[in-house]
Write a structure and sequence with these properties.
Reverse transcriptase domain-containing protein; 7-stranded mixed sheet; Rev_trsase/Diguanyl_cyclase; 38 strands; metal-binding; Deoxyribonuclease I, Chain A; 34 helices
């Protein structure tokens, strides 16, 4: 089906045969269905224009009300005759039309006319509440086409509103636009007007009558997954609608074919979860395994010994444990056994002849099932919150995917390499996947300068790293394995070692000792199975739209953990302090905090700051292995340990899994081993050598003076020069995410050139297209306009950059960060709307726990580093309370104050949450060792530059002092208390609770004063010309409302109350 839809704004769709004129214009542009806004027609009705060829349907205010607003549809007559349902008017601002598509699915068109910007907030809230309600009632499988005049400017910040806005927006976002973007983020909608690269004249729809600037106010919006149905959305400038808005036309091609069902061939699996909960089963498995093992394997090779071990373990597990039942991650599946018992009891009760007993059993069954569901959600929420509190990022996001629920999976024949045809034969498909992942995992790499790397300084070899591992090390490595992970070639998951008996682990430990002695790793431990996962965007038939996940042997991971533990301890003595990635006690917040503090201190002391965010092309996959072995040797790695690490990489083979079938194996010869626990440590050591080599030719650094033995609020501590330590700050690194910093463009250019040359020597490549520069000039001055270039190509300059998930701006404000956080949180909140918020079976307390575990961490990510103004807190608090009102199902008509909302859910406001985050983080910084970069920067000032006279711009330590004062924590001795972690956390918890209670009480008192204050009366004064004017200041007003506003604002004491 190919058709056109349009959006038009008509200020008066009524007499003088205007309907016929509009129909003519619609026919001229071949519009099948048009949404019309601001019709000014009363009630609801239908009008057929035979000559024009369109039928009009509208919904407006009642006859007794003044004509205003109004929405409608204009449908081509040949389509109107086939409508099974006429359009349904919700109110004077929303109208819906449902079209049946060739399948059993439907297309829901929603014509809207939103309140204008000056409209009362209550009217806007009512409109978006009702629109949200309309969208929520639409089945998720159906398509949505939301179109109309939204009176909103959404701007062009596509990075903050990812997948809501396209890259081709117009202008800036206003308050109405923020409401529309939040709705789209929650409902998974995309604004198609911003997705097509067109001249601005084909995107803007309305010209401001005074400024004469054109703006985009009329939108055509679809579900995110249906964006491929939209061929183009553009403005038709020639359409004459006798209105101040232009016609927006969208060409649609609807794809409604049922996805081809892939044949699901499930390989033989074992129900390993039974092993976790059943000690008797563990003992039986251990006995069966011991009986099947030969007495000695000293006379067989390592590969043969592993083969005998694995085959015996698989066979015993299959006989003793058995096959699992297919299940999905859901509360029902996890409670399946309990529910089965309840249902059986209920069935037995049905045999009773007592009607009341049967009725009671029915209600009892429902109540118990609801209790199980609520318990599952409560436990899941506590689990997610624990992962968030303990900074277990991987498990946190893994749990999020569980609660977001299973995604609809589509399959389609993939393209060949040049995309000229589709592949349907299974062997051809597997060959294509092999070709694709061979290119991905064996990229064309820059040849390293091995002679130069050999010439680097040798560090003393740490021979202790080569000692035979102890059984305690083996046990610690086994405990580090994660549950519920797909196994590698051997089909033996981590649970078999974590919960297996002593014979299973003793035999594997003896095998690991043999491997350690002879320095030969079994081939199964080297090889990888690659599962492909759709990225969620791009053509589903394109191999480039998938990422590969390597599945490795769990037994091999045990040996890798043993090696990695030793290597990581040695790496801590070698890695620079600027490296925050994959190291204990460090995280993304450390890196973000350092960068934002350097930005803040540069602005405070009127110094320029230039930052370059370097992107390496496939950094982990392009590490040359021969160069890596040399670097490890130079770093003091003993020969035995180096040989064992090489054994995991040399002769590595991989195969691709597609629809439970496996491809032929192919070699992987480049990069660190994907999915291996050794990979982050190996890359960190290698890249540290690159960075150290780059620094050799750089002399100009940003220098900070730091001293932490006195209070951070005491500036006089820098006067004692002998007590001050000077430190250079050139970069901050998280794995391969590099931020270079300098106080002049010349220094930054030198550094980027030096890093580029070092990367070439070590076989790495900097991506010119993705590396970006951010310039921060001192306030009130213009920065250096020169460009930073790489190999003659000027690097892209930006005003804000998304670094490690946080938005950095050249003015160090939160103008980009806060909207981005709200957009992400709105998307997370919207994903749980059906499964959690709208569920009647889940208790309110459980919903709040889920909200705390999922939405709040997303909203307040990196809030520890923020320097918040009151406007930022207000913007976040509005979203916070909006979500809570939605969970409580409080309508705007209920007039429940925010203080009551917070008390009902038992949560503090956003300000209290941010204060708690920042006080705990500040205590963490205080407890850091003196060599840690976040602490050094926190207690520092730049070595050059002066502050302006008078009051300073808001700084992080000003925010900290404000937070301490608000919580009644003395600013003199807080650092001594913060060094005691348990006492500090307890103090912060109690103090923030007291602050929040006082804040709510003050708001209640202020509201009560406002409610009891008598309504003011005004004395209107007129001059000799009959004009309304203010007696004290002589200002003239055209309206009484303007006069009243002026008196309230400037002369309140003169009101008659």
């Amino acid at each position: 089906m190919i058709g056109y839809v349009g959006v038009g704004n008509d200020t008066n769709l009524c007499p003088e045969r205007k309907t016929a004129l509009i129909a003519r214009e619609l026919a001229k542009y071949d519009i099948d269905i048009a949404a019309i806004s601001e019709t000014h027609l009363s009630d609801s009705g239908e009008l057929c224009e035979q000559l024009g060829g369109y039928t009009y349907y509208w919904s407006g205010k009642t006859d007794s009300e003044r004509a205003a607003s109004g929405v409608g549809f204009a449908v081509r007559n040949r389509l109107a005759q086939k409508l099974q349902e006429v359009p349904k008017g919700i109110n004077d601002r929303i109208m819906t039309l449902r079209l049946q598509l060739p399948t059993k699915k439907y297309l829901h068109l929603i014509s809207v006319y939103a309140p204008t910007l000056p409209s009362p907030d209550e009217e806007k809230a009512k409109f978006y509440y009702e629109l949200n309600h309309v969208i929520n009632k639409i089945p998720t499988a159906d398509k949505i086409l939301l179109l109309g005049d939204f009176n909103a400017r959404v701007g062009r910040d596509c990075s903050a509103w990812d997948r809501v806005l396209g890259r081709h927006g117009v202008g800036n976002c206003n308050a109405n636009g923020f409401d529309l973007l939040t709705l789209c983020a929650e409902q998974g909608l995309t604004i198609t007007n911003t997705c097509f690269r067109l001249p601005e004249k084909y995107k803007t729809t309305w010209m401001h009558p005074r400024s004469k600037h054109w703006h985009l106010l009329d939108y055509i919006i679809v579900r995110r997954r249906d964006l491929g149905d939209v061929r183009i959305t553009r403005v038709m400038r020639g359409a004459q609608g006798w209105t101040d808005h232009r016609l927006v036309r969208s060409k649609l091609r609807l794809h409604l074919k049922i996805p081809r069902r892939a044949p699901h061939k499930h390989p033989a699996k074992i129900d390993w979860e039974r092993l976790i909960k059943n000690q008797e089963l563990t003992d039986k498995l251990d006995e069966a395994f011991h009986a099947g093992m030969p007495e000695s394997m000293e006379d067989v090779s390592v590969d043969e010994g592993w083969r005998l071990y694995a085959e015996n373990l698989r066979g015993c597990a299959s006989r003793v444990i058995g096959r699992p039942k297919r299940k999905n991650q859901d509360w029902f599946d996890d409670s399946d056994a309990e529910i089965r018992k309840l249902v059986e009891e209920y069935r037995r009760t049905l045999l009773s002849t007592d009607t009341s007993e049967r009725r009671g059993a029915h209600h009892g069954l429902k109540a118990k099932v609801r209790a199980l569901k609520n318990e599952w959600w409560a436990n899941k929420a506590l689990e997610i919150q624990y992962y968030a509190d303990t900074n277990q990022t991987g498990r946190f996001f893994e749990s999020l995917q569980t609660v977001f629920g299973p995604k609809y999976k589509k399959t389609a024949p993939i393209y060949n390499k040049d995309k000229t045809r589709r592949l349907t034969v299974q062997n051809d498909v597997l060959a294509r996947w092999v070709e694709h992942f061979h290119d991905v995992l064996n990229p064309t790499a820059q040849m390293p300068d091995l002679m130069y790397i050999e010439s680097l300084k040798d560090l003393s070899t740490v021979e202790d790293l080569a000692d035979r591992p102890s059984f305690n090390e083996y046990v610690a490595a086994v405990k580090r394995l994660k549950n519920a992970k797909a196994p590698g070639f051997d089909s033996l998951p981590s649970e078999i070692y974590k919960y297996g008996g002593p014979q299973i682990n003793n035999n594997l430990f003896r095998l690991i000792l043999r491997i350690w002695d002879c320095e030969v790793v079994p081939q199964d431990w080297r090889d990888a199975s690659i599962c492909k996962l759709y990225k969620g965007k791009g053509d589903i038939a394109d191999c480039g739209s998938y990422r590969g996940v390597s599945l490795l042997s769990a037994a091999g991971k045990i040996l890798a953990h043993i090696i990695n533990t030793r290597l990581s301890q040695h790496a801590e003595t070698l890695l620079p302090e600027a490296q925050c990635g994959f190291r204990p006690g460090r995280g993304t917040v450390d890196a973000i905090f350092v960068v934002k503090q350097i930005q803040e201190k540069s602005l405070e002391q009127y110094r320029p700051l230039y930052m370059c965010f370097v992107d390496l092309e496939k950094a982990f996959d392009k590490v040359p292995r021969e160069a890596l072995w040399i670097v490890l040797k130079k770093a003091g790695c003993p020969k035995k340990l180096l040989n064992l690490i090489r054994q995991f990489h040399d002769n590595m083979m991989a195969r691709v899994r597609h629809e439970n079938d496996f491809s032929d194996q192919f070699p992987v010869t480049s990069g660190v081993k994907q999915g291996c626990v050794l990979a982050p440590t190996l890359f960190s050591l290698y890249f540290a050598s690159v960075m150290q080599d780059a620094v050799k030719t750089c002399n100009n650094f940003i220098t900070i003076n730091t001293r932490s033995d006195r209070s951070v609020f005491d500036l006089s501590r820098f006067r004692a020069k002998r007590q001050v330590t000077s430190l250079p700050v050139m970069d901050i690194v998280y794995a391969d995410d590099v931020c270079l910093m300098a106080d002049s463009l010349e220094s930054l250019q030198t550094y980027i050139d030096s890093l580029h040359q070092s990367c070439r020597k070590f076989g790495l490549v900097i991506s010119t297209s993705k590396t970006q520069v951010l310039k921060q000039a001192p306030r009130g001055s213009i920065g250096d306009p020169s460009n930073i270039s790489l190999e003659g190509t000027a690097l892209v300059e930006v005003t804000d950059f998304k670094y490690l998930g946080s938005r950095l701006r050249n003015d160090n404000t939160l103008a980009s960060e806060v909207p981005a956080r709200i957009a992400s949180a709105a998307a997370a909140f919207g994903k749980l709307k059906t499964r959690v918020w709208n569920s009647h079976d889940i208790k309110l307390q459980t919903k709040i726990l889920v909200y705390q575990a999922i939405v709040l961490p997303t909203l307040l990510y990196a809030a520890e580093t923020w320097c918040c103004y009151r406007a930022n807190i207000k913007q976040l608090d509005i979203f916070h309370l909006k979500c809570l009102r939605s969970i409580l199902r409080i309508k705007w008509q209920d007039r429940v104050p925010n203080t009551e909302v917070l008390r009902r859910v038992g949560l503090p406001g956003i300000e209290a949450l941010i204060i708690k985050h920042q006080l705990r983080w500040s205590g963490h910084v205080v407890r850091m060792s003196e060599c840690r970069l976040p602490k050094a920067v926190f207690y520092s000032e730049l070595s050059c530059g002066k502050r302006k006279q008078g009051g300073q711009y808001l700084r992080y330590k000003d925010v900290l002092k404000r937070n301490l004062a608000a919580c009644n924590i003395p600013t003199d001795g807080w650092e001594g208390l913060a060094r005691l972690r348990p006492e500090w956390r307890h103090t912060v918890h109690i103090s923030v609770e007291a602050f929040e209670e006082k804040r709510l009480s003050d708001l209640d008192a202020k509201r009560q004063v406002r409610r009891t204050r008598p309504k003011p009366s005004y004395t209107y004064t007129y001059n000799s010309s009959g004009q309304l004017y203010c007696t004290p200041c002589g200002r003239i007003f055209k309206t009484k409302s303007g006069f009243a506003s002026h008196i309230r604002a400037y002369h309140y004491d003169q009101l008659n109350t």
